[in-house]
Hints:
Elements lengths: L9 H7 L16 E4 L5 E3 L1 H15 L7 E5 L5 H11 L2 E4 L20 E4 L6 H10 L3 E5 L10 E4 L5 H18 L18
Parallel strand pairs: 3-4, 3-5, 5-6, 6-7
Antiparallel strand pairs: 1-2
Helix pairs in contact: 1-5, 2-5, 3-5
Amino acid sequence: MAEEEFLVPLDQYLKAGLHIGTKYKTKYMEPFIYKVRPDGLSILNIQEINRRLKMLASFLARYNPEEILIIGRRENSWKALKFFSQVTGIKAFSERYSPGVLLNPALEDFMEIKLLLVVDPFPDKNVIDDALKLGIPVLALCDTNNTANELDLVVPCNNKGRKSLGLIFYILAREYLKLRKLGELKLKPEDFGTEDD
């Protein structure tokens, strides 16, 4: 694949460790694994990651910001989610999802959404269950150790690393603004946490 077809230069993907998986792999994620290193870490296919990120950005762009919810319980995603939410207007929950927010209109923070994106399906399982009860499409960033049943779109990637998540949400913010013709993203990848602090 020619480098200009990538959403960011290939070396930027590599530097962020977007393709570095875990030592554990599930049958759901095996098709996305390019190889396994001698130390046992799985390496994800960068071309497939890039292709799926394009699909995810295109899918997100079909919805207005208030129709989307992003959940990221992992602390390494919080900075990226904060900046993503600021520039796109898409609601992002970091830390813990309050049970019933999507199901119970009597709750103060109740919200109606049409699309859910989770940073990691394992710790974000409760919100996925609520979305499935309502028939809301669920998109997820999945590492090699995730299960992908009941998900509508899987984006294979390192969903645990701060730099990796920073680059993902930088790309998604930039593409969302561009596809919805909302202007250019003024922030840089570093703002989302792609560099060491």
